[in-house]
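Allow me, if you will, to draw on your knowledge of protein folds for a short while. The matter concerns a single protein, recorded as an amino acid sequence and a row of backbone structure tokens. Could you please explain, in whatever detail you think fit, how the structure tokens follow from the sequence? I remain grateful for any guidance, and I place the record below:

…
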Amino acid sequence: MWLTNCHVVDVVTGEVLRDRSVHVDNGVIVEVAAAAPADADVHDLGGRHLLPGLITCHSHMSIVFPFSETREDEPAELTAFRAAQRAADALHAGVTTMRCVHEQNRIDFVLREARARGWIRAPRVFGAGRALSTPGGHGEGSDCVYVKGADAFYHAALGELEAGADHIKIFINSGLAREGEDFEHAEMTDAEIAATVKAADEHGAYVVAHAGESAAIRQAVELGVRSFEHIYALDAETARLLAEREAFVTPTLCVTNSLGWMRDNHFDEGSVVNAKNAIAPHQESFRRAVEAGVQVVNGTDVPPGDRVDGVSAVVHEMYLMAKGGLDNLRVLQAATVTAARLIRAEDRLGRIAPGYAADLIAVDGDPLNDLGAMGRMSFVMLEGEVVREDVPV
């Protein structure tokens, strides 16, 4: 198939290749050309801008809202139905790859297998299985693996890796989920973090840390943690350290900027108040990360296909990043090439180039000049198959 009559956005250089045709075959991009052959099978995109499919790096397909209704003994069958619907919603929103960072019943592994067998249409999944949490910690009540001590964390991490995890999720700080909770309380020792990193390193994986404040982040980056989530209170010194160590940050600005969505989903008022009170420090922390040149990636925490303020959560996160000082190109890179680098798939995902996966989206307008174009998405292709087309062709 040839996708014709489109403007290709190069998310590496920021260049727009106007009036191009893209040849896809067997799920892979073959060629970007000036025109398709006369006898080609074509899909006319009508002058839309073509971008790589979006990669979101902080997803929970199984999470229950409000959190207080989570049942740790929920049958896996129920979890699977909820997760499959959310995955379908994410794909419709242009998410072609998602990194899951804790799923009840290890449902990310189930989604990955069902997708591989062709039983569901869903984004490709990079999964963590269950997060590792200390007893009574931030993950309490969420079907985490609850352990204490370095040896226990090491073996718990091995358990998730041997079950199929691509990365390991830990909580180095508390968070905003429950009334009275704050993000400044450290929840793991140096030895526990180091043991988790050791297990991940031995399996060619890496560690993802739920992180709130700077002291815990500095501790974790020195011990080898590669990916930091939320960063509600990041100081300039720690931002510089993250940049120097080439660590990644998933700011999840949606967490503190989706209050209407939270109320629509019946969150406890204490959770809403926590989020509201964290808006200012969260935004300032993101600004510091941007100024320091930290590698930031898109991740929503909110299901990426859910509607927040009139757009999908994954696009809402883009708008929030731009509002926080990230230029439009880096916003796009955060959901494409930079995200691909984080998940170690930069050789096959996140770009429109020969040999890369034919995961593509089309929008009305040039998002480099008008990020609002991302809210006018009308076409999604996953591995060479058109899975959404809103414009009659």
